[in-house]
Amino acid sequence: MASSKVGSIGEYIREQRTRAKISLRQLADVSGISNPYLSQIERGLRKPSAEILQQIAKGLRISAEALYVQAGILEEREADTDVQAAVRADLLLTERQKQVLLDIYESFRKENEATGVFGAAEHDAPEQDGKEEVG
């Protein structure tokens, strides 16, 4: 039944809004959506379009992808690594925090891939000043 999915996106948006500690009216203002329409989405009475979800995501400062997955517009992609899976599974992080961590992690991976650095690069690094300490 499609309405259960509609309800779940509304509940998810309300949960994210509550975590962000902003009111329904504030989210409506920053996302450019009318207060009554946003209320209907949260209560599961309306199914938001991808464009509306994008505006809501911007207002909540979370990834639009997270809302698309929750709304059933996109399939949730599998995590490439254990780190990504752990970040996505962490219930104590907001979607925005998760996305920032994943972006940083991915930038490190791409940097290492571009420079050919893989795995335990720290073990091969030369001493900082070339002198050994005597204990």
Automatic annotation (TrEMBL):
Residues 13-67 form the HTH cro/C1-type domain. PROSITE patterns: HTH_CROC1. The keyword DNA-binding applies. SMART domains: HTH_XRE. InterPro entries: Cro/C1-type_HTH, Lambda_DNA-bd_dom_sf, TransReg_Diox_bact_type. Residues 115-135 are annotated as: Disordered. Residues 121-135 have a biased composition (Basic and acidic residues). It holds the Pfam family HTH_3. Keywords: DNA-binding. Gene3D superfamilies: lambda repressor-like DNA-binding domains. PANTHER family: HTH-TYPE TRANSCRIPTIONAL REGULATOR, METHYLPHOSPHONATE SYNTHASE. This is Helix-turn-helix transcriptional regulator. It comes from Actinomadura violacea.
